[in-house]
Amino acid sequence: MTHRITVIGTGYLGTTHAVCMAELGFEVLGLDVDADKIASLNEGRVPFYEPDLEPLLRKHVDEGRLRLTTSYVEAAEFGDVHFICVGTPQRKGEFAADVSYVEDVIEGLAPHLRRACLIVGKSTVPVGTAAVLADRVAELAPAGSEAELSWNPEFLREGFAVEDTLKPDRLVIGVASERAEGILREVYAEQIAAGTPFLVTNFATAELAKVAANAFLATKISFINAMAELCEHAGGDVTMLADAIGYDDRIGRKFLNSGIGFGGGCLPKDIRAFMARAGELGADQALTFLREVDAINIRRRTRTVDLARECCDGTFVGKRVAVLGAAFKPNSDDVRDSPALNVAGLIQLQGAQVRVYDPKAMENASRYFPTLDYADSIVDACAGADVVLHLTEWREFRDTDPAKLGDVVAQRYIVDGRNALDMSRWEAAGWTYRGLGRAV
Ligand code: UGA
């Protein structure tokens, strides 16, 4: 059976999902209420940076397998399976997630449904949301449409979005009927045939699987960053410590990279929304440890500022600071909750002249953080700097020749906020290298 698929919400998740569904051979209609986004996608342009995505988008738009629209009526007529891929940002001034965009999709789509279909939520939502939305679908969908809801969380990473979508580690579906399971087995037939674990469960487990995974990843990062704090006091080296514990398969070396910590549109807001939801459910004690995970993460940013200040003789006033990196991680132009820009902003507030350079995130950085000063290149950012901060581990920064860069700075001080530079190479070129969680 060939399913026609709609993907509602063409942000990061939705664009990737729509393109990958087309790549799997489905006819796909993407929908967004933002007409500018739709216009850009229809011209084959992805409005954010994600390796491999744009050529695939262009291919499927050109070949007519992927179309884009702003019309719910069209989407309702077209789709056998409707994927919801809209955002669930943190509410202003609160920890809880704002699920209003997901609700808007149900309100926009369900009244127009005229035939049997499956609505599949992919957005990250507080546990319990799917059950409420399923009731709303039943209320709104006209009789005879046999519309039904299921939940299928997404685990893709920015920078690897296409690969993660086409070849996921696992697929998790929360369903209320065998019919829904059957449809999703057909949609994901290629991945299931390739041996991808396919876990069929209820709504709550599926919703929790997503936030539990992100909470675990955040905890792993904060754990190693807490060890970095200890190393600073005890004279240890956290990178060696991470290797030493990471060789134990039960622990694993992945996500034990210490530094200025996690940012982005997912981990920080997801752990906060998870805590808020636990509180609503009367289970807040279960997640109080996530407060500490969050606190450790934020402390690393202030520690980085302190290290940089030490390199400036104890004051930023009248000093020049170069910041290499603006994206929350490499291979992305996403600056949401970027630790790099947070650190840059804190240093600027303390009186330094801060110049930032990033290979891909300059446009977003200058749009959302307009008060910072931006440079066109590494050399431009570092000219006359009293200290250079390496805050997003792009390859371009790792490959930079420290000897040449040493010629343009005022002082050869490098703070490696990602513990990713080759310390001996920088030291050999006459730099004083400071890492986080590494003995001086
Ligand atoms: C994260 C999860 O990894 C995905 O599985 C999930 O699907 C996604 O959130 C989501 O909820 O949509 P992403 O935000 O793309 O993916 O980024 P990560 O690769 O997880 O990195 C998050 C942050 O942690 C970055 O700021 C990164 O620099 C930092 N990090 C990561 C570390 O500080 N140390 C590490 O060892 C790993």
UniProtKB/TrEMBL annotation:
Its EC number is 1.1.1.22. It is an enzyme of class 1 (oxidoreductase). It catalyses: UDP-alpha-D-glucose + 2 NAD(+) + H2O = UDP-alpha-D-glucuronate + 2 NADH + 3 H(+). Pfam families: UDPG_MGDP_dh, UDPG_MGDP_dh_C, UDPG_MGDP_dh_N. Keywords: NAD, Oxidoreductase. Pathway: Nucleotide-sugar biosynthesis; UDP-alpha-D-glucuronate biosynthesis; UDP-alpha-D-glucuronate from UDP-alpha-D-glucose: step 1/1. InterPro entries: 6-PGluconate_DH-like_C_sf, NAD(P)-bd_dom_sf, UDP-Glc/GDP-Man, UDP-Glc/GDP-Man_DH_C, UDP-Glc/GDP-Man_DH_C_sf, UDP-Glc/GDP-Man_DH_dimer, UDP-Glc/GDP-Man_DH_N, UDPglc_DH_bac. It comes from the Bacteria. One of its GO terms (molecular function) is UDP-glucose 6-dehydrogenase activity. The keyword 4Fe-4S does not apply. The active site is at residue 266. One of its GO terms (biological process) is polysaccharide biosynthetic process. Coiled coil: none annotated. Residues 322-423 form the UDP-glucose/GDP-mannose dehydrogenase C-terminal domain. Belongs to the UDP-glucose/GDP-mannose dehydrogenase family. PANTHER family: UDP-GLUCOSE 6-DEHYDROGENASE TUAD (PTHR43750:SF3). This is UDP-glucose 6-dehydrogenase.
